[in-house]
Amino acid sequence: MEVIKNKTMMEAAYDTLRKAIVTGHFKPGEQLIETDLIEWLQVSRTPLREALRRLETEKLVVSRPYKGVFVNQISKEYAEQLYQVQSILEGLAARLATQHRTPEFLVELRELTRQAVQRKQIGDYEGMIDKTYAFHQAIWRQSSNEVLLGVLETLQAQIHLLRGTTLLDPDRSEENLYEHEKILDALSAGSCDTAQALMSEHINNAACAAIRIFRQRREQESPKEVVNGQT
Fold first, then answer.
1. pLDDT at position 3
2. How many C-beta atoms surround the C-beta of residue 177 within 10 A?
3. Amino acid 108: pLDDT
4. Phi first, then psi: what are they for 226, rounded to 5°?
5. d(Cα 119, Cα 129) in Å, to the nearest integer?
């Protein structure tokens, strides 16, 4: 029973930390102090460390010997590469999802879009990010391509981290919701080419927003811990 309890505590700590990172509660490059996290999460050291190791495998945090654990600050160069891959893969997912669309799938996307707009209107940006991410995940699943889904799920932590970063920008969040509506229109109309093109453009627009944010951070902040393109 103790093993089950510890596993549950680890998963709870992991889920809370992961959400805090991808929604910007903990900033890129920020050090995660173990004693503070234990008090905040109300967990013991063992499940906390297990949760941090899991986050490290997803490249959401980085452990530096004799220094501690830091929120991963993805480099501009690595982000550009990730967005290039994401643009191609998600464009393909949108094409395939259009081919395999069902009435239930379209209803799900409409509801997620409605909820995302609602969350933004009340200032719940964390909730909006969750719903926009669920929108993308629904399209991945509807592609009915297990290989594609597997690759996207492998990248999902880093994708979600970047998405959270850009959607905290009010201007980008407004554009993002509009782009989702256009993608949904193309999916509903059964236009594979348009759905693929709009999704790829959507990801490229997110990339431009991310690069703009990276430049602003470089101007405002001193160098911090970085992986995948260290500074």
1. 39
2. 19
3. 98
4. -135, 145
5. 9
